[in-house]
């Protein structure tokens, strides 16, 4: 399970974006249960996402399917990164920088 911060100003419509961007990035409509949205796509047996406290973060839990082809893994990873960019408002580079502790910089 991983928690990602959401860019300020993007927290108001976070729930709508979680749902809409899953359809946009993966082409699959998620099922919703208790505030958690779930899909299955490519190399992901399960992708669960829910809004964190105050809609300031998203909490993502995944389960990988190790039996798929390398091309499917690459496609799934590309779509997952695109999804994170859209939902959090931060690029991959910005997310990595925010995840590093001040001692590592």
Can you describe this structure?
The protein is of the alpha+beta class. It has one domain (2-95): TATA-Binding Protein, CATH 3.30.310.190. The protein has three helices and five strands; from the N terminus they run βαββββαα. It has helices at 14-26, 70-88, 92-99, and strands spanning 2-5, 31-33, 36-41, 44-51, 57-64. A five-stranded antiparallel beta sheet has the order 1-5-4-3-2, with helices on one face. β3 and β4 form a beta hairpin. α1 (14-26) packs antiparallel against α2 (70-88). It is globular, with a radius of gyration of 14 Å. The model has no long low-confidence stretch (mean pLDDT 91).
Quickly name the level 1 CATH class: Alpha Beta
Overall outline: globular
Q: What's the structural domain tally?
A: 1
Average pLDDT number: 91
Structural class: alpha+beta
Rounded to the nearest angstrom, the radius of gyration is 14 Å
* Largest sheet properties: 5 strands, antiparallel
Provide the low-confidence segments as ranges.
none
**How many H/I helices?**
3
How many strands in all?
A: 5
CATH topology (fold) name: TATA-Binding Protein
Listing every helix as H and every strand as E from the N terminus to the C terminus, the arrangement reads EHEEEEHH
